[in-house]
Amino acid sequence: MSESPAKSAMQDGLAFERPLNELQNRIDELRKLNVGSHLELTGEIEALEERLKKQTAEVYAQLSPWERVNVARHAERPLTSDYIQLMLDDFVELHGDRVFGDDRAIVTGLASMGGVRFLLVGHRKGKTVKDRLACNFGCAHPEGYRKAMQKMRMAEKWKLPIVTFINTPGAYPGIGAEERGQASAIARNILEMFDLKVPIISVVIGEGGSGGALGIGVGDRVGMLENSYYSVISPEGCAAILWKSGDKAPEAAEALKLTSKDLLRLGLVDKVIDEPAGGAHRDQKGAVERVKAQILGWLQELQALPTAELLEQRYRKFRGMGQPLPG
Questions:
Q1: Cα–Cα dist 11/211, whole Å
Q2: Contact 143, 95 (CB under 8 A)
Q3: Is 119 helix (H, G, I), strand (E, B) or coil?
Q4: Max CA separation in the chain (angstroms)
């Protein structure tokens, strides 16, 4: 029997998870003893499980912004590929930008879920070292953003809604990407997404870094998973600029107001999608089900709107960002 992602996450846990890891290891040991001996340890196991549940809730309720950034980057956190596998009923990938090449850092394809057909666009990070290198760790080239827009225009022609999954540290900053028009490609995507005459839903499932995220992030509804982040720059990049030291990343994370609760309070996202206790990396299927339910609810809501009203609401939504909130 293969090891569960949740158990692997416990073993690889983050620094603040160590007390939780120790408690989980103790529970696992007692379970083995309970099965392999005449001892009756069920009561003690149940008491420890209840203690773990309570302690997990307390730890995650008090996470600092920097700790949430690390949760968003957790190796076992579900990626776009996991959502494709666990959430969709059908998926046909579409390749290439018809100009330069097929950027693996962005995946596009025709999808169906719960009887609803739509176009899926998402950042792809890869799971193995080989895949991560091939996908530039989710940092897309301009051809990735051009691919995304070309497929979005196709979805508009077929009157299909669009769902985007954001999970990138930022767009690829290499010389080749700049030579091929990185900034222009992202800017054009932002501009043209405002004109798409179909519903658009964007969900930040992990990292939401800078223009790399915004390139597929203009949505009628923008959601964030509880332990994801969305920021103009990574905490490390901000610290390097302001303090000339990556050691100041925790302070930068605090100053950037990049957590889901901060962004909801500031009116930059519409909804924070709660994660299972202890983060999405402990219960991938549970996290995927919550995202699926939210997307289906939004699709039903948006598809009922006339096109003119949909576009007007989208424009007003982004035009009003940065304005003081009432109260």
A1: 34
A2: no
A3: strand
A4: 70
Note the pLDDT of residue 7.
Answer: 38
Spatial distance between the Cα atoms of 84 and 258, rounded to a whole number of angstroms: 26
> Is residue 294 classed as helix, strand or coil in its secondary structure?
helix
Question: Which residues have C-beta within 8 Å of that of residue 321, sequence separation ≥ 6?
Answer: 267, 268
Question: What DSSP string runs through 157-206?
Answer: HTT--EEEEEEES-S---HHHHHTTHHHHHHHHHHHHTT-SS-EEEEEEE
Q: Name the pTM for this structure.
A: 0.86
d(CA 176, CA 295): 36
Number of residues assigned to the chain: 327
Please provide the distance, in angstroms rounded to a whole number, between the alpha carbons at the two ends of the chain.
Answer: 54
CATH entry, 69-319, from 3.90.226.10, 1.10.8.60, 3.20.20.70, 3.30.470.20: 3.90.226.10
What proportion of the chain, given as a percentage, has pLDDT over 90? 65
**Strand spans (E) along the chain:** 90-94, 106-113, 116-123, 162-168, 200-209, 221-225, 229-231, 271-273
Strand partners, 278: none
DSSP letter, residue 114: T
Residue 34 in this model has a pLDDT that exceeds 90:
no
Gap between the Cα atoms of 291 and 297, Å rounded:
10
The residue with greater pLDDT, 324 or 303, is: 303
| Beta strands 90-94 and 106-113, pairing class | antiparallel
Residue 47, pLDDT score: 81
The helix or strand, by DSSP H or E, that contains position 32, with its residue range, turns out to be helix 18-36
> What distance in Å separates the CA atoms of residue 207 and residue 216, rounded to the nearest whole number?
13
The pLDDT value given to residue 326 = 57
| Per-residue tokens: 203 | 């969900």
Q: How far apart are CA 28 and CA 5, in angstroms?
A: 15
Q: Delimit the domains of the chain by residue range.
A: 7-62, 69-319
200-209 vs 229-231, strand pairing mode: parallel
Closest CA to 5 of 61, 60, 86, 66: 86
